[in-house]
Design goal:
Layout (H helix, E strand, L loop, with lengths): L4 H7 L9 H8 L4 H6 L16 E5 L14 H21 L7 E5 L8 H12 L4 E5 L20 E5 L21 E5 L21 E7 L7 E4 L5 E6 L6 E5 L5 E6 L4 E4 L7 E6 L8 H14 L5 E5 H7 L3 H6 L9 E5 L8 E2 L2 H8 L6 E4 L6 E2 L6
Parallel strand pairs: 1-2, 2-3, 3-4, 4-5, 5-6, 6-8, 7-9, 8-10, 9-11, 10-12, 12-13, 13-14, 14-16, 15-17
Amino acid sequence: MLLTSEKRNKKNEDRMGKLPDAVLLKIMSFLNTKQAVQTCVLSKRWKSLWQSLPNLDFNFDTFPFQQEIDDEDEERVEMKMASFSNFISQVLFRRCPTDLVKVCVQSHIYDPRCFLVDGLICYAVKHNVQQLTVHPRSDYPYLFPESFWTCQSLTALELKANDVTLSAIELPKLLACPALKSLHLSGFSPVGPNFENTVFSGCPNLETLELFDILAVGSEGLCIDALKLTSLVLSFALIGDGKVEIYAPQLTTFKYSGIAPTMWRTDSLANLDDVYFDIKTPRFKHNERDYVLCLINILNKFRHAKSLTLSTAAVKVLTKFPSLVDRNRLRFTNLKHLKIKFDKWPCKWLEMPACMLNCFLNSSTILKICMDSPMAVFESPEDSD
C-alpha cells in the first residue's frame, strides 16, 4: 500500500534535528572533536553547531588519516602531525568564545617542543576550562605555561609523562589552583632545586590525589598537606632515602605501591576505611632487617583502617623476619577485613607465619580474611631469623 504524503513526510522527519542545541551538543561531546566537526555536513542546522562544543578531544593516535602509518616512517608521521596540528589550530580559530568544560589532548613524540600543546593549554585556561587531560608524549621534560599552574577554573587535572625512563613532568614550586578537586600525575620527579615539597598546599579543595610512577624522593621529601583530601594513591617507580609526609585528617582511602621510603610521617588518620599496600623488595638491599622494620612502622601509621589489603609481595617482605613482626605488633584495632591480593599469575600457596596472622586476629573481635586465588594455602613455618 502506498504511503500517503503526510505519512511519508512523517517518516522522513528529522527528529534529531529538532532537539535543542544544548541536547545536541551534549550528544556531540561523546564524539572526538574530529567526528563532531564532521557533523557540519548534515544540514544547515548542524553547520556551525560544533563551534559551541563544551568538550574538546584531540588524540593523535586516533586522528583520521588516509592509511595506517608505521611509526618508523618519520616522513609520513610528520605529515600526519602537520595535519593534526592544523586541525587543532582551525578548531580553536573558528570556535565560539564560550567556556570549556573538558579538554583532552594526546600529542606525539614528533612534536618535540610541544608548541601545539602549549597553544591548546593557553586557550583552555583563557576559556575557563574545568577538566583537563594532557599527555604530551615528548622525549623531553615538558614545561607547562606559567599561567597554567594558577588556573582558577580547574576542578580536575590529569597529566601523564611519556616514559618514566625518558621524561618527567616538572612541577612548579607551588600549584595554585584553588578550585582543583581531583589531581592525577603520572611520571614526575619531586627533586631538584626548583621543587618545593609543599607543592600541593596551594590546592585547598583537593579531594582526590593520584601520583603514579614517582621517579624519586629527594632529601626535601614529599609533603601532602590537604585538609579535604579523602583519597590518596602513591606509586613509586624509584625512591631514594627521602621521606613522605601526609597530613590529611579526612583521608578515607589510601593505596601505596613501590619501595617503602625510609621515613614516613603522618598525623592522626582516624577516618581511614580502606588501605592497600603493595611493597616491593629493593633491587639492592643494604639491610633487609631494617627494611622490614621500616615497613612495620609504616603499616602502624595506618592502624585505624577498617579494611586492609596486602599484596603477596608485601606479605613476603614481612615474613622475611617473623620475629620482628612478633615483637612489633601491628595494632589495627578497627580492622574488619583483611585481604591478600595475589599477583597476576596465581600462586599455589602463600606462606604466612602464625605470629603474623595472629597479630591481625588479636587486633579485632570480628575479622574476615579474603583471598583472590582459591589455590592459596596458608602454612605456618617455624619462626626464625
